[in-house]
């Protein structure tokens, strides 16, 4: 079992102590930094003062990005699958013509 690492992350002016696997530290720190940057952006652009509202907007932003990437990936997979099926069909035709 890996040794756990104790870190403190600051998000929206609050400190969150976490015990994590060391290989997750960089990702968590980057995520916390991204969240804080987005919070500042929302506060400046929309004059939102309530941290809960800003955090909800951040959560929606990140969740929508994940969902959009999933939709795009599914679309790309469908495109690739269609082309592979066409290629397979062409190969099957060529193979059967040699029999």
TrEMBL record:
Q: By its UniProt entry, which InterPro entries does this protein fall under?
A: Cell_div_ZapA-like, Cell_div_ZapA-like_sf
Write down the Pfam families for this protein, in alphabetical order.
ZapA (PF05164)
Q: Which GO terms describe its biological process?
A: cell division
Keywords carried by this UniProt record:
Cell cycle, Cell division
Q: Which SUPFAM superfamilies match?
A: Cell division protein ZapA-like
Q: Which domain of life is it from?
A: Bacteria
- Name listed for the protein in its UniProt record: Cell division protein ZapA
To which species is this protein native? Abyssalbus ytuae
């Amino acid at each position: 079992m890996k040794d756990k690492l104790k870190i403190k992350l600051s998000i929206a002016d609050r400190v969150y102590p976490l015990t994590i696997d060391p290989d997750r530290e960089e990702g968590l720190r980057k995520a916390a930094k991204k969240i804080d940057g987005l919070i500042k952006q929302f506060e400046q652009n929309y004059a939102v003062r309530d941290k809960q509202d800003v955090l909800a907007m951040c959560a929606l932003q990140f969740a929508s990005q994940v969902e959009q990437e999933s939709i795009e990936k599914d679309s790309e997979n469908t495109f690739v699958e269609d082309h592979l099926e066409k290629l397979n069909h062409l190969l099957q035709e060529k193979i059967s013509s040699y029999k």
